[in-house]
TrEMBL record:
S-adenosyl-L-methionine binds at residues 17, 19, 44, 65, 90, 106. It comes from Solirubrobacter deserti. Belongs to the class I-like SAM-binding methyltransferase superfamily. rRNA adenine N(6)-methyltransferase family. Keywords: Methyltransferase, RNA-binding, S-adenosyl-L-methionine, Transferase. SUPFAM superfamilies: S-adenosyl-L-methionine-dependent methyltransferases. This is rRNA adenine N(6)-methyltransferase family protein. Residues 24-185 form the Ribosomal RNA adenine methylase transferase N-terminal domain. PANTHER family: DIMETHYLADENOSINE TRANSFERASE, DIMETHYLADENOSINE TRANSFERASE-RELATED. The keyword Transferase applies. SMART domains: rADc (SM00650).
Length: 250
């Protein structure tokens, strides 16, 4: 059995699997498509695969990295890449800029859900984010559950391509996926509606009965009038449709 080194331990804790597949890097940057000159945060920049590709497109990049060893590497390489500022810090706590910005991130899968939650709650200047997550986590966040329904009136969460484990070095044990987080230009509900909407979702996702109609205590015909199957179950309703059902039933 090969001997373990301190470097192995650090790689495991910080999940240092770096993007190696240049086609995946190109797809991530194409999906981000930052406008010229826009500010892009690369959260968990590692050796800079994404930082370098974004900077090559003429964008300003703030590369945030927790591991001092990779901060040093980034600082030595970044001057050759373009307008890159390296920030030694934690992606879950580093202050976000006051101006508008985009986010690209392939951070450890273990912090992926927390990172997305932070983008949804704290990133007021965010215009678009592309985050690589463990595939199951990406599908859970964007799919037919309460999390996606809670955020859908204000954000579009979309799962794009699979990022196969073999796109990384070293190769991790699970596949990833690209998730985009985009604030809606026209929100489907006002922020003031949130407490009532949240109570409505509690009924929809935790009430008694199997069907949405039973849980919301409405006639199946009321859902049919909104274009939903009479026997729709909560998980089968697309997240963005909940705002419409809420508005119609309120
Ligand atoms: C999976 S690697 C990917 C690196 C690079 N983004 C890429 O695609 O090749 C994740 C990187 O995030 C760093 N990292 C881990 N936890 C972090 C945190 N809380 N904040 C910022 N960076 C973190 C790790 O040290 C590592 O360099």
């Amino acid at each position: 059995m090969p001997r373990r080194t301190p470097g192995d331990a650090r790689r495991r804790t910080l999940s240092q699997n770096f993007l190696h597949d240049q086609q995946v890097v190109a797809d991530i940057v194409a999906t981000l498509h930052p406008p010229p000159g826009a500010l892009v945060l690369d959260l968990g920049a590692g050796a800079g695969a994404l930082t370098r590709a974004v900077a090559a497109g003429g964008n300003r990049v703030l590369a945030v990295e927790l591991d001092p060893r990779w901060v040093g590497v980034l600082r030595s390489r970044a001057p050759a890449w373009g307008d890159v500022t390296v920030v030694a810090g934690d992606a879950l706590h580093v202050p976000f800029p006051a101006e508008r910005f985009l986010v690209v991130s392939n951070a450890p899968y273990a912090i992926g859900t927390k990172l997305v939650r932070r983008l949804l709650t704290d990133a007021h200047g965010l215009t678009r984010a592309v985050v690589v997550l463990q595939r199951e986590a990406a599908l859970r966040l964007a799919g037919g559950g309460r999390f996606a329904a809670s955020w859908a009136p204000w954000f579009e969460l979309t799962v794009h391509r699979r990022v196969p484990a073999r796109a990384f070095r070293p190769v991790p044990s699970v596949d990833g996926a690209m998730l985009t987080v985009v604030p809606r230009a026209q929100p489907l509900l006002s922020p003031a509606a949130y407490p009532r909407y949240d109570a409505f979702l509690t009924a929809a996702f935790s009430g008694r009965g199997n069907t949405l109609a039973r849980r919301l205590n409405v006639r199946p015909s009321a859902l049919a009038a909104l274009g939903l199957p009479r026997d729709a179950t909560p998980g089968a309703v697309p997240p963005e449709v909940y705002a419409r059902v809420f508005t119609a039933l309120e």
